[in-house]
Amino acid sequence: MNRFIYSALLYLLLPLLVLYLAFRSIKSPDYRCRWGERFGLAKLKQSDLLIHSVSMGETLAAIPLIKAIQQRYPQVSITVTTTSPTGSAEVVKAFGPSVQHCYLPFDISICVKRFLRQVSPKSWIIMETELWPNSIYFASKQGVKVMLANARLSEKSAGQYSKRMKLSQPMLQSLDIIAAQSLQAAERFIELGVSPSRVKVCGSLKFDLTLPEDKIAQAKILRQQWRDKSAPIWVAGSVHPGEFEAMIQAHKRLLASKPDALLVMVPRHPEQFNAAAEKILASGLSLARRSLQDSVTFNTQVLLGDTMGELLTFYGAADQAFIGGTLISNGGHNPLEPAAFGLPVYVGPNHWDFAEITRLLDDAGALKVIVSADELAEELIVKFDDKLIYQNASEAALRVVNTNKGALQQQCELAYQLIECVK
């Protein structure tokens, strides 16, 4: 498939994109707003630099990079785009009016061309692997210098690109700089036709996360409110439908040996909060909902984290963590946030979006890959029972995070080069 066929298919699929937004808006009201931005119809100002992150995770990783650019180049105007309401909320919270913000339009030629013509950026930084053929093509045609920051490319994604070389290769070869998270990712980009001179291994920005003091303080308060220090608390973070039952089953097994244990279950998407609550109640476990400010008592068995922006705090108040999106075919989410608090971490087998990070944590003894609820329960019980095993895993998690810091400075330098070459 080449770009012309791809573009034609997108025009044919346009009614489905409208239906997609309508469907998402049923369960998540935030998707009812700002449709004009999705189709390049918003009125925007010109900016020197365009930065795109997808959702909350990518945006949180991008925030330190964007702040460093603002500090070094206060005169450079910036537009930050996202694709999800959660990512949008993080941009607004972090930068307010200091940047122009909107959703990135769908990759339909007419929408992309209008968007790029309005913003008219000199350079564009794209986070991770959010690559769209038309967007890259028209940006390159407009003379925009493009950097792929914090770039990851799993074996699975590389295989998909290789099956569509007529579409993917011109797009990848249009990238001026690729700041790869790992040597494996860098090699995959090169195998797909990117010039080695454009690829630099920098590590992951996610290792450079800073735990905010207010989050740490809030986590300590929550811990005191929820349970005695010796009582077991674990978090199932960013879990998806298809994983709710496994988390409940694992917790029931844990409760059989640790009756005072507390599970903090945090669904990935807000539209799944009520569905998760129904699953918990149907299982017979006692439930408190964070959004309702329910008290967490000794008899509370599950706290549903049905709020936004608190997952990091929940990790800080817990002892162990499971990362969702890995027992289903999703690709997983970031295991470094709980690891930064020194928590032993568990993931399912489908963690390809964070394969290198998972491997580092696994090799160090900080993480275990589990395949079932029963195996998860067994691992939780072992760590809660054996303080030495727990301590070894906890120290390993902190060691991996601390020894892999430094990606931010390297990627900042590449971003500065990108900006300087178009000044």
From TrEMBL:
GO molecular function terms listed in the Swiss-Prot or TrEMBL record: Kdo transferase activity
Superkingdom as given in the UniProt entry: Bacteria
Record keywords, A-Z: Cell membrane, Lipopolysaccharide biosynthesis, Membrane, Signal-anchor, Transferase, Transmembrane
Enzyme Commission number(s) from the entry: 2.4.99.12
Reaction equation(s) it catalyzes: lipid IVA (E. coli) + CMP-3-deoxy-beta-D-manno-octulosonate = alpha-Kdo-(2->6)-lipid IVA (E. coli) + CMP + H(+)
GO CC annotation, single: plasma membrane
GO biological process, one term: lipid A biosynthetic process
Protein's membrane topology: Single-pass membrane protein
Catalytic residue list: 58 (proton acceptor)
Residues under site feature: Transition state stabilizer: 128, 206
Compartment(s) of residence: Cell inner membrane; Cell membrane
InterPro entries: Glycos_transf_N, Glycos_transf_N_sf, Kdotransferase
Main location: membrane
Pathway: Bacterial outer membrane biogenesis; LPS core biosynthesis
Alphabetized SUPFAM superfamilies for the sequence: UDP-Glycosyltransferase/glycogen phosphorylase
Top EC class for this record: transferase
Domain 3-deoxy-D-manno-octulosonic-acid transferase N-terminal: 34-208
PANTHER family given in the database record: 3-DEOXY-D-MANNO-OCTULOSONIC ACID TRANSFERASE, MITOCHONDRIAL-RELATED, 3-DEOXY-MANNO-OCTULOSONATE CYTIDYLYLTRANSFERASE
Similarity-based family: Belongs to the glycosyltransferase group 1 family. Glycosyltransferase 30 subfamily.
Task performed by this protein: Involved in lipopolysaccharide (LPS) biosynthesis. Catalyzes the transfer of 3-deoxy-D-manno-octulosonate (Kdo) residue(s) from CMP-Kdo to lipid IV(A), the tetraacyldisaccharide-1,4'-bisphosphate precursor of lipid A.
Protein name, as recorded: 3-deoxy-D-manno-octulosonic acid transferase
Organism annotation: Shewanella hanedai (Alteromonas hanedai)
